[in-house]
Amino acid sequence: MKWIKPSEVNGTITAPPSKSMTLRAAAIALLSQKESQIFNHSECDDVIAGFRVARALGARITSRGNNVKIVGGRSPQGTILDCGESGLCMRMFAPIAGLFNTKLTLTGSGSLRKRPMGMIEPPLNQLGAVCKTDNGFPPVQIRGPMHSGKVSVDGSLSSQFLTGLLIALPFCRGDSEISVVELKSKPYVLMTLSLLERAGISIDYEKDLHRFFIPGGQLIDSLSVEVEGDWSGASFLLVAGAICGKVTVQNLRLQSTQADIRILEALGSSNAKVFIASDTVTVKESDLSAFQFDATECPDLFPPLTVLACLCRGQSLISGVERLQHKESNRAQALFSELTKIGAKISISGNRMAVTRSRITGGLIESHGDHRIAMAGAVAGLSSTQGVGIQDWECVSKSYSRFFEDLNSIGGAVS
Questions:
Q1: Spatial contact of 407 and 414, defined as CB atoms under 8 Å apart
Q2: Is the pLDDT confidence value at 326 over 90?
Q3: Which of 214, 238, 268 is the last residue of a domain?
Q4: Is residue 242 domain-shared with residue 377, that is, in the same domain?
Q5: Which of 156, 183, 313, 346 has the most Cβ atoms closer than 10 angstroms to its Cβ?
């Protein structure tokens, strides 16, 4: 168990590398016949799983320091693709697996076994692959090769499967068209398109209609990318600065397509003191006021924003609760059950969470195996009166392995 005592933070941290960008870059590099390089890659558990899947599909991956070299092979080395607990890995690599004339099974562990995968089946089957899930859940069995075509994709739950199709379909003969119904997490789609463009892949995107036109028979050039700092992980540190001290986070790209850059908008709405210089953001404690924020496009901000709202005068409203049901936990319920244990005043009605200024007392909370619940509990502990103990804290390695070390380095009393 990790115990976080009441603390005043003051220090500078370099943001962890983005796992979302690292994983997308690895998937694209897998399909290139040339050598690609990824600098400043994330080393979290999800990325380890993604590299494992890429190797199983034929990539040769070597690492030296913060430089990863990937030579694509497109030659499966086995039939099992172990995605660990990464939903992005499973949904993104499923269409890529559909390029091969081999029966492949994408498996996972822990919470991934309960995450919905039913949206994968209809489009891949329409494109000629044979795809089967276990009543809409992992494992996912796929045998290609899939072909080009016109498909409709359900984007209401996640854009991760769409990302996989955008990476895979340029390699099919003939042109393809994807129409997306209720596209969510659009910023991550833009990240995928940007990386593909840098690798020489052309895709036309009709934003108003959420339609993608993909010329077939394209080849990926080598990809060289320096991974941005992760706004999702950094958001917890920035909130820590807003509620109990001062925190500076470096390596945060201000022109990023990452959805969670909107933490700056939420902090501004709460009257936090935010200072921006180049790729560095500093947040200082201030008299915070209630805010309203729509997190539909950035659901990973819900945990840090819930903690922020506990320290804001009045009642804050955060919408987008429907996006939280199928994360590593039912994240809305986990936030409610664990934070109310330690004094938070939270209510949920439909698609909206209301958080009233609260006195965080302290106590023990359970992470539910969810990295973002564990990090939220830790930040709440900083502003508590008695401290907060977090059970199953190791799950933070899913996205931010050094989180507790970084929190400690800026003055957070972690034991």
A1: yes
A2: no
A3: 214
A4: yes
A5: 346
pLDDT at 103 over 70: yes
For the beta carbon of residue 340, count every other beta carbon within 10 angstroms: 14
Number of domains in the chain: 2
Q: Are residues 192 and 260 in the same domain?
A: no
Do 259 and 137 belong to one domain? no
pLDDT in tens, 157-202: 889 999 999 999 999 999 999 999 989 888 999 999 999 999 999 9
- Domain with residue 34: its CATH number is 3.65.10.10
Euclidean distance between the first and final Cα of the chain, in Å?
Answer: 9
pLDDT at 213 over 80: yes
**Tokens 């030659």 correspond to what residue?**
75
Cα–Cα distance between 345 and 311 in angstroms, integer?
A: 11
Measured distance CA(400)–CA(102) in Å, rounded: 34
Predicted model pTM:
0.95
Domain of 77?
19-214
Which parts of 339-378 are beta strand (E)?
345-349, 352-356, 362-366
Helices (H), 319-370: 331-341
- 230, 300, 370, 406: which one is catalytic? 300
The residue type at 378: A
Answer whether 246's CB lies under 8 Å from 274's CB.
no
pLDDT in tens, 231-259: 999 999 999 999 999 999 999 999 999 99
Whether residues 258 and 313 fall in one domain: yes
Q: What percent of the chain has pLDDT over 90?
A: 91
Contact 354, 339 (CB under 8 A): no
Q: Above 80 in pLDDT, residue 328? A: no
